[in-house]
Amino acid sequence: IAMETYIRQRQLIMSPLITSHVIGENEPLTSVFNKVIAAKEVNHKGQGLWVSLKLLPGDLAQVQKDFSHLVDRSTAVARKMGFPEIILPGDVRNDIYVTLVQGEFDKGKKKTPKNVEVTMSVYDEDGNLQEKAIHPGAGYEGVSEYKSVVYYQVKQPCWYETVKVCIAIEEVSRCHLRFTFRHRSSQE
Questions:
Q1: What are phi and psi of 178, to 5 degrees?
Q2: Across-strand partners of 183?
Q3: Is the pTM of this model over 0.70?
Q4: Any idea which fold 96-183 has?
């Protein structure tokens, strides 16, 4: 009962129309969310995004059966980060998550800060690129290189982008991540 009450409260909090805000192109997404959450006055004028959350009871098979109109084949299923309380035999899980947090880049001889793009890739000890080892999110195909968002002329970009690195257990000790930092021209 307490969980149902909590969910209803969350639904009420999340249900109002989230108004659209004009933001700077250098502004991190986290600060945009904070502004939306802190907004007191709701004057949406027909613009915005409707967000609704609902907890569905049962395991995945039961939810797919009972709520087939909500969960179909195209629905991405994300496994919970962390370990379950009970680990079943045969449930092999070797999840590696990497979060690109932030950086500080000097502008050098330029008058304005650089437009930095971070590229992440996985290589083995022989220098061979591991194909499709990086997964940007649930439901996405693996990619060989992950490229970050590029913030326009920001000295200290904050990305907070998390990816999953999928490497066979026996290969983990023989692989490494390569991060390359590159200035991207605004003409590219």
A1: -120, 125
A2: 116
A3: no
A4: Immunoglobulin-like (2.60.40)
